Amino acid sequence: KSGKLEELYTERLNGIDSHLADNVKQINGAISSYDKNLIEVKQRLFDTNLKNRQYVFVGDSLREANGRWTFKKMVYKLAKSGISPCLIGKSGLKAEHWSKTNIVQNLNDFPTTDDVIKVIKGDGSECVVDICLCTNDLSKTEAEIVGYLKKGIADILVAKPNTKFILTTPNRYKNSTSN
Fold first, then answer.
1. pTM for the whole thing?
2. Burial code of 21-55, b = ≥16 C-beta within 10 A, e = fewer?
């Protein structure tokens, strides 16, 4: 009897393993490049073998002023985890100025991609840049906003080619009720 139970148990375990393997194959095929990026970001942040982990917050008032309380909470948690946080933000910052697409001379106090590049250590392989912009770009089209973000990221990647990015930009599409 004992041998029969063991045989059934082994058969059932093998069936479960086979079923799980099939599920993993299906899931891997369904993971988008966006999801893969998030997985890589998480791995980078939680890899304690990396000694110079950085998390750079970039943004407008949603980060610099209104979101400062979030940053303060995150600073503590990140630092406790051995991750060096940095905030590069300014109320009123536009993605077009940050990306240096349209430079306005009277905006010298506003950060650009150059400021982000300066704080990233090495080739960026231990850094995640979290970009929260475009609240002040509502007069622009979706294509223009996407262009600004792509240009800014591309400029950073030229200098720091292994940097990972997260976009937490709030307005995915232009709000038809805004100005």
1. 0.73
2. eeeeeeeeeeeeeeeeeeeebeebbeeeebeebbb
